[in-house]
Amino acid sequence: MFLLVRHATFSQSVIFGAISCLNMILTHRTVKSVVIPARHKWRNQAGIFRRNAVTSWSEGIINLPHERNPTETEIRTLTPLELLGPLNDVERKYAPSTLFSAGPMETPLPNPRVAIIGSRKASAKGLSTAAHITSVLSKREVVIVSGLAEGIDTMAHETAIKEGGRTIAVLGTPLNRTYPQKNSQLQKEIMTNHLAISQFPVRYPIQPRNFVMRNRTMALISNASIIVEAGETSGSLHQGWEALRLGRPLFIWKSIIGNSSLNWPKKMLRFGAMELTDPKDVLDVLPSSKRISQIVMRI
């Protein structure tokens, strides 16, 4: 059963007082809708809607009583501070004010975290490279971050899970939607045993710009990013430029550097991106997996 919330005028909302709504939900589980006052309506821009617009989410986990869809339950509302810890001015510029997450991974997120990204229509060589890089890093307790898209992203998530590692999916859709649809089981696995994150509330319309915003957020969440394979118009380039803007390490796999038909790798190299020839080289730029408090105690 899905609990549908609609907006109404104040005069309509008087009919459904807070106590009445609670009684209806508790005693009549087949209730189809609850009307809330229109004054709680949020602005239609992901990442900047008011926190009081999501009052029903604000106290943590939501569990619908029965017939629940796993992708619409157990969703937490977090601020970037709660998810990542303190941010500087550069990091706050494009950070969404509110994030939604599903999965058992602890917060603030554990270090280190590396995004492995690339083309949706990846070549067999690109997929093999993504699997190799992911395997090397997962075995060294690096959390693998990607966007649940076709191609490179899917390979990164699946390999991390296969290797017994941990993975974070940063979605360009609300957590109750899956894109592409064929990754619905993978998303369910991640939401159940790992972590899925979105800056878009349930029922937020899916638009192409959402994925650009998602890529910026994924760069923020990751300690470093690796572009495995990407063309001149790939969405992965948005994340690459954002990683550089944030001052985060950006790696470009060696086969792309040597591709004379591509111009973007040369541009990014001029701005500080690094060629990657061995996945273990990434480990040199990553933060410790230990919390600061643990390090201080040892000192």
On the 0 to 100 scale, the average pLDDT is 80
In order across it, which strands form the biggest sheet?
Answer: 3-4-8-7-6-5-9-10-11
The secondary structure category is alpha/beta
* Largest sheet data: 9 strands, mixed
State the end-to-end CA separation: 53 Å
At the first level of CATH, the class of the largest domain is: Alpha Beta
Kindly identify the CATH topology of the largest domain.
Rossmann fold
Q: How many discrete structural domains?
A: 2
Descriptive notes:
- There is one protein chain.
- Residues 1-68 and 291-299 have low confidence and may be disordered.
- The chain folds into two domains: 1-41, no CATH class; 84-285, Rossmann fold, CATH 3.40.50.450.
- With 299 residues, it is of the alpha/beta class.
- The protein has twelve helices and eleven strands.
- It is globular and about 45 Å long.
- The strands form two sheets. A nine-stranded mixed β-sheet has the order 3-4-8-7-6-5-9-10-11, sandwiched between helices. Strands 1-2 form a two-stranded parallel ribbon.
What is the topological layout?
Elements lengths: L3 E5 L1 H4 L4 H10 L5 E5 L38 E3 L1 H5 L4 H4 L6 E4 L10 E5 L6 H15 L4 E4 L5 H11 L4 E4 L13 H10 L1 E4 L9 H14 L2 E4 L8 H11 L3 E4 H4 L6 H7 L3 E3 L15 H7 L1
Parallel strand pairs: 1-2, 5-6, 5-9, 6-7, 7-8, 9-10, 10-11
Antiparallel strand pairs: 3-4, 4-8
Helix pairs in contact: 5-6, 8-9
Which terms summarize this structure?
299 residues; alpha/beta; Rossmann fold; 2 domains; 9-stranded mixed sheet; 11 strands; 15% strand; disordered N terminus; disordered C terminus
